[in-house]
Amino acid sequence: MSNITVCARFRPLSSRERSNHGDSVCVHGIDTETFVFKDEKEEDFSFSFDRVFYEKSEQVEVYEFLVLPIVQDAVNAINGTIITYGQTGAGKTYSMEGPSVLECDELKQGLLQRAANGLFECIKSTEGSVKHTIKLSMVEIYMEKVRDLFDLSKDNIQIKESRVQGILLSGVTEIAISGPADALQRLSSGIANRAVGETQMNMASSRSHCIYIFTIQQELAKEKRVKSGKLVLVDLAGSEKVEKTGAEGRVLEEAKTINKSLSALGNVINALTCGSPGKTNHIPYRDSKLTRILQDALGGNSRTALLCCCSPSSSNASESLSTLRFGTRAK
Ligand code: ADP
Ligand code: MG
Predict the structure, then answer these.
(1) Which atom of ligand 1 is nearest to the CA of 97?
(2) Stated pTM of the model
(3) Does the structure's ipTM exceed the value 0.95?
(4) Residues in the chain, pLDDT under 70
(5) DSSP SS3 for 25
(6) How far apart are CA 117 and CA 181, in angstroms?
(7) How far is the CA of 94 from the centre of ligand 2 (A)?
(8) DSSP letters of 101-120?
(9) Cα 315-101-33 angle, rounded to 5 deg
(10) Long-range contacts of 158-165 (CB under 8 A, 24+ apart)
(11) Please, are residues 208 and 145 in contact by the beta-carbon 8 Å criterion?
C-alpha cells in the first residue's frame, strides 16, 4: 500500500579503502532484496529493502527500478520525489549525476540525465493529443536558506503554498527545457553555480541539500485544461555525525542544521508510512525547509523513492548502519 520505495546501494570500495589493510567488505549479499551487514564488532545485522544494488550494479538498473515508474507518473500529473541519502562519499551524487552531469559514457550517466531523457521519451509517446511543457528549477538549501542555482542573487527564496498550485518557491527561476540535450546544459550550469557559491562561502556541497525540480505541464486540447506534475530529485547533505569534540563554530552549526532537517525528513516519511488507512495523522512538513519544499511531492498520491547510499567498507560501518536504519524506518 505504501507509495514509498526504499532501496540500498553499495558503491565499490574506493582505492583508499582497498589499500587500507584493516578494511574489509562488510556486506554479504543474500539476494536482490536481502543482505547481512557485519559491524566493527563482527556482529551481524540482516536487512531487507525493496531492492539492493550491490557494487557491480549499473546506473541503468537503479534508474529502471527506482526512477522510471516515477517519471512515467510525473508525465501524467502525479508528483514524485527521488532522494539520495547517506554519509559524504557514499555515492549520492554519483548516483544522481554520474561522474559529471555532462558525462558522455552512457553507461555511467546518473539518474538525473536518465530522468530528463525519460521525461522527453514519455511525452513523445503522447504527441498530438496532449501538449507538454517541461520546466526546470534548481535550488540548494544551506543553513535553512533556499538559494536559486540559476540566479545566485536570489539567495533567500520563500516557500509559499497555493490551493491550486501547491507548494511554490516564490520568484524561483523556471527554465523551459526544449529537449534532453538542453536539460543537460541547464543542469550543468546550475551545478556549476553551486560550485561558485561554494568557494565564495567556503562551503562544501556535502553540507547542503540540492533539489532539482522538473515541472511537467500538459495542455489537454479538447478539455481546455492544464494539468501539471512535478518530478523532484534530491541530493541530500551528508548524513554523517560530526565528532562532538573538535567541531565548533560554523561546522557545528552546519551539522546541527543538517541533522535537524534529516530527522525532519525521517519523521515525515515515518508519519506517512505509519499512518493507519483512512485516518489523517499529522505530518510534520513544517519542521524544515526541506520537508516543506517536498510537501506536495511526498505523501498523498505522490510517489517517493529513497536510495540509501553506503560505503561497503568496514571503516565506514557505523555510518552505513545508521544510513540503513534510516532506510528501514522509512518502509
Ligand atoms: P557523495 O555525493 O555521497 O558524497 P559521491 O557520489 O561523490 O559521494 O561518491 C564518492 C566517490 O565514490 C566519487 O569519487 C564517486 O565517483 C565514487 N563512486 C560513488 N558511487 C560509485 C559507483 N556506484 N561506482 C563507481 N564509483 C562510485
Ligand atoms: Mg555529493
Answers:
(1) 6
(2) 0.95
(3) yes
(4) 1-2, 197-203, 244-247, 276-279
(5) strand
(6) 9
(7) 7
(8) TT---GGG--HHHHHHHHHH
(9) 50
(10) 159/289, 159/292, 159/293, 161/295
(11) no
Among protein residues, the one whose CA lies closest to atom 15 of ligand 1: 94
For the chain, helix (H) and strand (E) counts, in that order, are 9, 14
89 lines ligand 1 (CB under 6 A): yes
pLDDT value, residue 1: 40
Q: Where are the alpha helices (DSSP H) in the chain?
A: 15-19, 59-62, 68-75, 92-97, 111-124, 180-201, 249-274, 289-294, 317-329
| pLDDT digits 0-9 by tens, 42-73 | 899 999 999 999 999 999 999 999 999 999 99
Among left, alpha and beta (phi > 0; psi -120 to 50; other), residue 89 is: left
pLDDT for 249 equals 80
Identify the CA nearest to 35 among candidates 46, 44, 24.
46
273: left (phi over 0), alpha (psi -120 to 50) or beta: alpha
- Nearest-CA residue for ligand 1 atom 9 is 91
The ligand whose atoms approach the alpha carbon of 85 most closely is 1
Q: What is the mean pLDDT of the chain?
A: 91
Residue in 9, 52, 54, 94 to alter for ligand 1 test, most ligand atoms within 8 A of Cβ: 94
Q: Whose CA is nearest to atom 5 of ligand 1?
A: 91
Atom number in ligand 1 closest to CA 14: 12
Pocket flag, ligand 1, residue 93 (CB < 6 Å): yes
CA nearest neighbour of 268 among 237, 296, 309 = 296
Ligand 2 centre from 42 Cα, in Å?
Answer: 29
CB of 12 shorter than 6 A to ligand 1: yes
Backbone angles phi, psi at 304, to 5 degrees: -130, 140
DSSP string, 68-81: HHHHHHHHTT--EE
Question: For residue range 221-277, what is the model confidence (pLDDT) as tens digits?
Answer: 777 778 899 999 999 999 998 775 566 788 888 889 999 999 999 999 999 888 766
* Ligand 1 neighbourhood includes 206 CB (under 6 angstroms): yes
